[in-house]
Amino acid sequence: MKILLAVDGSPYTKKMLAYLTAHDEMFGAQHDYTLFTVTDIPPVPPGIPIPENKASEARRCAEAAEKVLAPISKFLLKSGIDAHSAHKTGHVGKMIAEFAEKGKFDMVVMGSHGHGNLGNLVMGSVATKVLAMCKVPVMLVR
Description:
The protein contains 5 helices and 5 strands. The mean pLDDT is about 85. By secondary structure, the protein is α/β, with parallel strands linked by helices. It has helices at about 10-20, 55-80, 90-100, 115-125, 125-135; strands spanning about 1-5, 30-40, 85-90, 105-110, 140.
């Protein structure tokens, strides 16, 4: 099975990874895993110089993604899972859904805050957006 692990380095990602590695019967090393993170660059505050070109912005995004992906990749290797890594820049929920579909993944696995319906209405949720936009089955770990 081809499985996309949507990660952001948060405690919710760590909880999802703990679940994944604890359930070897379902998520063993026999599957093809890809770690995926999205860099959602906030607007540059006033007084801070704007990057002079797209190359420097792309480098900044790649560095931010590597800070998330490297420790997770290392953790999975210790559990016998050799995952590919990928990253994009943009709206997080939309990018996860698009990457999962274009990559022809069988499943997306991601952590979730677990706010519930009222919290999602007030705050929004990446997980809610992925569920709404993704045509690939999504497993949320809370």
